[in-house]
Automatic annotation (TrEMBL):
Residues 14-118 form the Splicing factor Cactin C-terminal domain. The lineage of its organism: Eukaryota, Metazoa, Ecdysozoa, Nematoda, Chromadorea. One of its GO terms (biological process) is mRNA cis splicing, via spliceosome. It comes from the Eukaryota. This is Splicing factor Cactin C-terminal domain-containing protein. Pfam families: CactinC_cactus (PF09732).
């Protein structure tokens, strides 16, 4: 069995909300927060390229994390990653992408941003 080539990318940067703007500055930034993930998984040698790879999310023992598992079929083994367990923003205009083209399975998503309102 072959291993799929992958390039996970984590989108993590500080959030400059009102609280952080008053308590931090550019020289002393707030801690980075994971805001999303970009997975580009390469499957150049699939036996049946008409069947797209898929993914499934499994709950982890730690409620703050989940495991995402990519499955493509022969000759590739499944691969899994541990990700932050938060609600996804699945709107295309906010960067969600799930597609399989030219041997590359792309899954890009960001997490929902909750705004504080009184």
């Amino acid at each position: 069995m072959e291993q799929a080539e992958d390039q996970p990318r984590i989108s993590g940067r500080p959030r400059w909300n009102k609280y952080n703007q008053t308590h931090y500055d550019v020289d002393n930034p707030p801690p980075k927060v994971v805001q999303g993930y970009k997975f580009n998984v390469f499957y150049p040698d699939l036996l049946d390229p008409t069947i797209a790879p898929n993914f499934k999310i499994y709950e982890d023992a730690d409620p703050d994390f989940a495991t995402i598992r990519f499955k493509a079929g022969p000759p590739y083994e499944d691969i899994a990653f541990k990700v932050v367990n938060r609600e996804w923003d699945v709107l295309h205009k906010n960067g969600y992408k799930c597609q399989f083209q030219q041997g590359v399975f792309q899954l890009w998503f960001s997490f929902k941003k909750y705004r504080y309102r009184r």
